Amino acid sequence: MSPPEPRTPAGAPEFSGVTPTDAIAAAVAADAHARGPERTSRRAVLAWGLWDWGSAAFNAVVTTFVFTVYLTSSSFGPAGTVEAQLGWALAAAGLLIAVLAPITGQRSDTSGRRKLWLAVNTYIVVGMTAAMVFVVPDPSYLWLGLLLVAAGNVFFEFAGVNYNAMLSQVSTPRSIGRVSGFGWGMGYVGGIVLLLIVYFGFIQGLFGVPDEDGWPVRLAMVVSAVWFGLFALPVLFTVPEYRGAGARREKVSFFASYARLGRDIARLWRESRPTLWFLLASAVFRDGLAGVFTFGGVLAASVFGFSAGEVIIFAIAANVVAGVSTIAVGALDDRLGAKPVIVAALIGLVISGLLVFFLHDGGQIVFWTAGLALCLFVGPAQSASRTFLARIIPAGREGEVFGLYATTGRAVSFLAPTMFAVFVGVSGEAYYGILGIVLVLLVGLLLLLPVRATQEKLSS
Question: N or C: which end of the chain has fewer CB within 10 A?
Fold first, then answer.
């Protein structure tokens, strides 16, 4: 009796003209590629990190410390009203992200065009940033400004889905924490450099820009667009297109992608419940972290009376504090684990946020101290959340779970803007928005507390 023919394992790709053994070997090779390189390439990591450096043009200049502060000034409407309208615009953007983001990364993986969609979404953001030059300081231009900020946020998050998914392509399991921290650090440093250019070149008039009609801010948006566009190029030319396990999955229709997402989440629930709980908790507290920076500049100007120049000076200090604390706390992450770092950071954020709220009558010194304390905890929470996930991902599921992490991170991105807008709208006072952000951070902390890491830390 002849021996049975070998069977191709379920899920392995079929290849015409090759034996099942060859097909299995090809599948193993593809899975190894999906997990990332055997060694970390400094050139690839630098190219990847430069995207984060460039993205500070949107994170720091547009949504946090310059354009949104300009958009909520008295030139566009009464105090309290314009802040609430900004909150609702960002909440609407968050709802779009919640509906679409969970499948954008999945579809770019299965199409094998992760890098292409990173480029498309990045340069849509670049175009929208440049278009902010047309937002004249007049109430009739408020909705144009809100539309550009909100739509820019949507496409920026779509780009972030693909960018974050590239982490496994430029790092190894042993270096993923350092590489992730390097990316965050590059973002903070890039923000510092660009904010210095904006402050001295445009706000202080070093470039000789006329002060009327909002030209210093409007031209700063053009410079920011060019900045992001240039520093986004290295990753597109250096990191190869994704060809891992996700690209071998069957392509499905747009609506069928939601059914696939549901099955993937159900499988995580059965096989690795702590991972799923962490994805949920981190989605909530990371939105709170984003809210700290998104509305920080707005609160500094509208509640504490910071001028446009003073907001930028605070922004530079905030980025320095966040960058230094993120790098310094990395050693504690390796010694104690990521969860204690995240929990301590979230507790610090809640306490600092409450201090800003209750002591808001104390003037600018309150925001300088408690506000910088907020920044002290933001970076470590962001960086440690990635390394925490790296330690609890089930073996062989790294690419899938990091992709889900990237998408769920912004799937609830409407929470902080909505809570900010609700608290401001109900009270009529901008400083009440702080309570909305603190509430989101507190809920994220409470969701995180029961989660436990089920795997040992990766060796450094």
Answer: N
